[in-house]
Design goal:
Elements (H helix, E strand, L loop, with lengths): L3 E4 L5 H10 L9 H8 L5 E8 L2 E10 L4 E8 L8 H15 L5 E3 L9 H6 L21
Parallel strand pairs: 4-5
Antiparallel strand pairs: 1-2, 2-3, 3-4
Helix pairs in contact: 1-2
The structure holds coenzyme A (COA).
């Protein structure tokens, strides 16, 4: 099973949002199509997909604020898990940050999804004891 990583194109929106839904990453407060449009192809952010003969089997939204890099919507379609797709997306995110001189990579894990922490630990991440504070500024953008 092979795949290539590439930036998402505008025409990928429906497939990428479907992947995020299939992977349990969309909650009612989210606007995944809006998230796709806000992040794709921007100066400080991009969405990368794992493309297997035209089928999107993985994704990662990545971006930076000049200080920290962030990963969101990391997902591998269930039938492609355990092949290294997410590992390749994380490696790509790390290279993307280093190219931009961003020294740290962060991500958030929902308290309902702590089973995924083991994956991130295999990729060298460590849990940090911080509190995340949030203020909602626009509807349907709560996470
Ligand atoms: C988490 C997820 C992206 C992993 O995708 P994947 O493509 O199967 O991961 P990989 O095949 O690249 O796995 C890399 C390594 O992590 C390990 N791993 C994968 N999931 C793991 C888990 N939940 N706990 C511990 N280790 C895990 C693999 O065994 C593999 O180990 P190896 O390098 O020793 O072989 C996938 O399970 C998924 O899409 N989950 C649902 C969406 C989600 O929760 N995303 C994260 C939001 S914070």
């Amino acid at each position: 099973m092979t795949w290539t990583l590439r930036p998402a194109e505008t025409g990928d929106e429906d497939a990428v949002v479907a992947l995020w839904r299939d992977c349990g990453l969309v909650i009612p407060a989210n606007d995944p199509a809006g998230d796709f449009r806000r992040a794709r192809g921007r100066i400080g952010s991009e969405i990368f997909v794992a493309d297997a003969d035209g089928a999107i089997v993985g994704s990662a939204m990545i971006g930076h604020d000049g200080h920290r890099g962030w990963v969101y919507y990391l997902a591998t379609t269930p039938s492609w898990r355990g092949q290294g797709v997410a590992r390749s997306l994380i490696a790509h995110a790390e290279a993307w940050m280093i190219e931009r001189d961003i020294p740290k990579l962060h991500l958030l894990v929902r308290h309902t999804n702590t089973g995924v922490i083991g994956f991130y630990e295999t990729q060298g991440f460590k849990v940090h004891p911080v509190a995340m504070l949030q203020k909602v500024l626009l509807p349907a953008s709560a996470e």
